[in-house]
Design a protein that fits this description.
Blueprint lengths: L2 H6 L1 H8 L2 E7 L2 H19 L5 H20 L2 H17 L9 H19 L9 H10 L11 H7 L3 H13 L2 H15 L5 E5 L3 E5 L6 E9 L5 E6 L3 E8 L7 E2 L4 E9 L1
Antiparallel strand pairs: 1-4, 2-8, 3-6, 4-8, 5-6, 6-7
Helix pairs in contact: 3-4, 3-10, 4-9, 5-6, 5-10, 6-10
Length: about 270
């Protein structure tokens, strides 16, 4: 199945995901970092427009975490490399038969737009003295208490709409990274069709062709099952062990039959 055909079934897969819990295993450091960024961006956007002081506090803490990830490594260069690589894959499909040229062109255009925004983006620098003060204290447990940073206490007691506008301004500086991360991961996830798998003893293992660019393993389980998967592996092989959760004690491996959906994503 071609990648473009997988995009066509994206709606059906999303409907399936509503009834499933998806567990993911990144197979390289680049995808691992992007999954963390995706998580942080979702977290920040979820609390961004909250009206309470605690919403604003949580959004700022997440914003600083995102900035730390972006500043720690050359994430901009990594994103550009992956976007260019994925775009080349789609461009190479143009001469194949039975390819929907309109979808293909729209997909390539989306890569061009995100690449343009990312390449035009200068280094992110928060010049806010408030953010600098919070960042200095944020790693200390309870370090951003009212008595530690009086200006933070003052800002948190301003009108909610004023806080939200300021938070949006700061978060917008990171929008190109958010869009690039989303495009790369969603395209990668759409590259594989979920495969139903059944095992008898709660354990599954598979070897991977190291010459193929596998980057992400996804496991889908019905939301009503009483077990979860523990995924481990790398570019050569991966394994899935199903465990019965116990909040108070160590989880126990199950030995009963298990059915799940597996996607080995490569692009």
């Amino acid at each position: 199945m071609h990648i473009l055909e997988n995009i066509d079934i994206n709606y059906r897969e999303n409907c399936l995901n509503l009834m499933q819990t998806i567990y993911e295993l990144p197979l390289n450091e680049r995808i691992r970092t992007l999954l963390r960024l995706e998580f942080l961006f979702k977290q920040a956007n979820y609390t961004l427009r909250g009206m309470t002081v605690w919403d604003s506090r949580f959004t700022i803490s997440t914003l600083l975490e995102i900035n730390n990830v972006i500043s720690r490594i050359d994430i901009q260069s990594e994103l550009v490399k992956e976007l260019v690589r994925q775009k080349k894959v789609f461009t190479s499909l143009a001469s194949l038969p039975n390819i929907d040229q309109q979808i293909l062109n729209e997909t390539i255009a989306s890569f061009d737009n995100v690449l343009l925004a990312l390449n035009s983006h200068s280094k992110v620098e928060f010049n806010s003295e408030l953010l600098k003060a919070i960042q200095q204290r944020d790693s200390i447990p309870g370090g951003s208490c009212d008595f530690d940073i009086p200006i933070y206490h003052y800002w948190l007691n301003s009108q909610p709409q004023e806080r939200i506008i300021q938070l949006e301004t700061w978060l917008n500086l990171l929008t190109p990274f958010d869009k690039a991360t989303t495009l790369i991961l969603n395209t990668l996830r759409d590259s594989a069709t979920p495969e139903p798998i059944s095992v008898d003893n709660g354990f599954y293992q598979r070897s991977l062709n190291s010459k193929s660019p596998y980057q992400l393993i996804r496991v889908g389980l019905d939301t009503n099952v009483d077990y979860y998967p523990e995924l481990s592996g790398g570019k050569h092989r991966f394994s899935i062990r199903f465990l019965q959760p116990d909040i108070e004690q160590k989880a126990v491996a199950i030995k009963s039959p298990v059915t799940f959906n597996l996607s080995c994503c490569l692009l």
